[in-house]
Write a structure and sequence with these properties.
Cyclophilin, 2 domains, about 25% strand
């Protein structure tokens, strides 16, 4: 690793089924893009890869490897020459792969045939930025071993996937504590445009817009949370939880984004607009 950019982590399918012991799933924030990258290089679905936030990554191949970059579209270069995006490509020993800045979206994925072979923690190689489980975020000088999780030889030469939309519309279902919010809160959530705040990350997106008022006083005992939960703190500014969300929370959950739309949420950048549709 020559340079990680603003944030680069190792991710895979995550740690499902461990919420009872306080461990969230984590894993790739944009699971669809991560899965596509693994398919392009012929990896098994559980292979670990790199999640690159806002581009800027540079690495040198230690041997001949097959790689693919997906997710937020950005300039890709090998030894300074343009290289394909969303397509498998071979890096010879010593070649330097560089990722520019995405022109849409936030998170890109770099898969290498065989997968990234860092030691698993609780069955996953994912970095959990909230708890610190898994490998730390990547730094310059990090050596990334390649594993043996390759499957059949890849047969696709390019995946023509469009960029994420400028202002996505995320589908939501009523949350378990919708009755803790004023009746107007649901209407505001599903009719108004919201903006992503600057202090958003893999844990969740803080949203700015109309204040969502409570219908009840007091607070709830802590209860379970899932990725996609839209929680409303006392200040009335909702938080949409992503891959590294806490497993419990005491603020009411007004809505839950459907799982299929979470990859769109994961590509939102600070300042982006987003809408919710019931």
């Amino acid at each position: 690793m020559l340079a990680p950019g603003p944030l680069a982590t190792v991710q895979d399918l995550g740690r499902p089924g461990r919420a009872a012991i306080g461990v969230t799933r984590s894993g790739a924030a944009d699971a669809a893009s991560a899965a596509l990258a693994n398919r392009l290089v012929g990896n098994r679905p559980e292979a670990a890869l790199l999640e690159v936030t806002a581009g800027g990554l540079r690495l040198r191949a230690g041997r001949t490897v097959l790689v693919a970059v997906t997710g937020a579209p950005l300039p890709v270069a090998v030894d300074g020459r343009p290289a394909p995006f969303a397509a498998p490509m071979t890096l010879p020993p010593g070649a330097v792969l560089s990722l520019g800045t995405p022109w849409a979206g936030l998170r890109s994925y770099l898969a290498v045939r065989g997968g990234i072979d860092v030691p698993p923690v609780l069955g996953s190689r994912s970095t959990d930025t909230l708890s610190g489980l898994g490998p730390p975020p990547l730094t310059a000088g990090t050596l990334l071993p390649v594993g043996d999780l390759a499957a059949d030889e890849p047969v696709v030469d390019v995946a023509p996937v469009g960029p994420p939309p400028d202002r996505p519309v995320l589908r939501v279902l009523p949350g378990p504590r919708r009755d803790w919010l004023d009746d107007a809160a649901w209407a505001a959530l599903t009719t108004q445009e919201w903006a992503v705040a600057a202090d958003s990350d893999r844990v969740g997106l803080r949203l700015t817009g109309p204040r969502l008022a409570r219908a009840r006083e007091g607070e709830l005992p802590s209860e379970g949370l899932v990725a996609g939960a839209v929680q409303v703190p006392p200040d009335g500014a909702p938080v949409l939880f992503l891959a590294d969300h806490p497993v419990t929370g005491g603020y009411p959950v007004l809505a839950v984004v459907v799982t299929a739309d979470l990859p769109l949420a994961a590509q939102l950048r600070p300042g982006d607009g987003v809408r919710f549709r019931a």
